[in-house]
Design a protein that fits this description.
alpha+beta; 5-stranded antiparallel sheet; 4-stranded antiparallel sheet; 11 helices
Length: 302
């Protein structure tokens, strides 16, 4: 499985939410942190993307904002400080006092029992895919998703999840074309990149730090220090994260026995797999599978 398919498969373990937002006059909302990934697609008008540590960025029709791992951000009619904005409102929006001046599609995959794929932690918190470089695909996908939101239809869960997947994939592909590589996790450190390609090509293998440092052409100590500095965690912890991200997908999408899942991911026993899963997610693999199926039966698009 290539890395982007693996990432989308891990995100799909959560519920997908989406809604149309219309604004007029002076407006702005702050979106607080959440566990998952999300997006905004500008459908009409112009607005501004606000973050904690970067200048405001103008958004135009067709631009897509990808929130890779649930970072706090804001959207507004004018440039301002992020914390000058009120939190995103809940419940049905009030009637607009005038004609719509700004319209966007807001969507997210929320992960109630997990964390985002480690690959996404190597990317910026927010990625803007410009309509000028990305073409009309994002707008077309957004329009299809909006059409599906307008009325209940047979197969809605499948089509809406698929369209959200395609939106996320479109942005990731565009960003990788412009900034990275498509054969492994993104990092501008060539030494760490070599180790990551080994891990992602065979996460079931019990990689040792010695093997990875040899592949990277460094001593164990220097390699561990460099890997941890770049990715924020040591090699073994990163390998565990990759394994458990694949476990989430296997548990949600199939009925493979837990022992078979454990062996597929390189664990010596079901007990070892279950202990690692509980440490990361606070829930057993079996309960995760059951809760994922319950979540899928709840209407999540609003």
């Amino acid at each position: 499985m290539d890395i982007l398919s693996e990432v989308i498969g891990s995100i799909r373990t959560g519920q997908v939410y989406a809604r149309r937002v219309e604004e007029t006059g002076s407006w702005g909302w702050r979106y607080d942190e959440f566990t998952g990934s999300g997006f905004h697609v500008v459908l009409r008008g112009q607005g501004w993307l606000l973050t904690e540590d970067a200048p405001p960025r103008a958004l135009r029709v067709g631009d897509v904002v990808l929130i890779t791992r649930g970072a706090r951000h804001g959207l507004s009619s004018e440039p301002c400080a992020l914390y000058d904005l009120p939190p995103e409102p809940t419940g049905p929006p009030p009637p607009l006092p005038g004609p719509t001046e700004f319209e966007f599609l807001c969507g997210a995959y929320r992960l109630p029992h997990g964390k985002v794929h480690d690959y996404l932690t190597t990317l910026p918190d927010l990625i803007v895919a410009s309509s000028e470089r990305g073409g009309p695909q994002a707008t077309t996908l957004a329009e299809l998703l909006l059409a599906d939101l307008s009325a209940p239809r047979p197969g809605a869960e499948a089509t809406r999840s698929a369209l959200a997947d395609l939106l996320l994939m479109h942005v990731l592909r565009q960003w990788l074309r412009e900034n990275g590589t498509t054969d492994g996790p993104y990092t501008d450190d060539p030494v760490v990149a070599r180790a990551l390609r080994h891990i992602h090509s065979a996460p079931h293998r019990n990689w040792t730090v010695a093997e990875l440092s040899t592949a990277a052409g460094m001593s164990r100590t220097a390699f561990t220090r460099r890997f941890t500095r770049v990715l924020g965690k040591p090699p073994r912890d990163y390998l565990t994260g990759v394994r458990l991200s694949r476990a989430e997908r296997l548990l949600r999408e199939g009925d493979m026995p837990l022992m078979a899942v454990a062996r597929e991911l390189g664990y010596s026993s079901e007990f070892a797999f279950g202990a690692a899963f509980r440490r990361a997610h606070g829930i057993s693999p079996g309960r995760f599978r059951d809760s994922s199926r319950t979540d899928r039966r709840v209407p999540a698009i609003r």
